[in-house]
Design brief:
Length: 110
Amino acid sequence: MNGPTKSRNFSGPWPKTPDRVLGTSLIRLYQLTLSGFVGHSCRHLPTCSEYGYEAIARHGLWVGGWLALFRVARCGPGGTRGLDPVPEELAPRFRWYLPWRYWSAGHHTA
């Protein structure tokens, strides 16, 4: 399999950089092992693990990891629910050295 890899909910190819392969592999390992014990109670579509996989594949481990972490935080009690796709592009105000801004990335896409 030498071609670009696609996630189940990510329609485009993604660069197989070491950080993205590591991050998506960890998400996939979680999906195959621990996910069954945690239960199927995600309040968003796509699920948090699918969101994390796509965010890392699309934006890299640093940015995608922050997006995924904040998505899981929003999924907790009193959090949001519903359709919450990974932003295709991020607005210029999102900088790698300001990770707290990724909390609202789904609402402020470019």
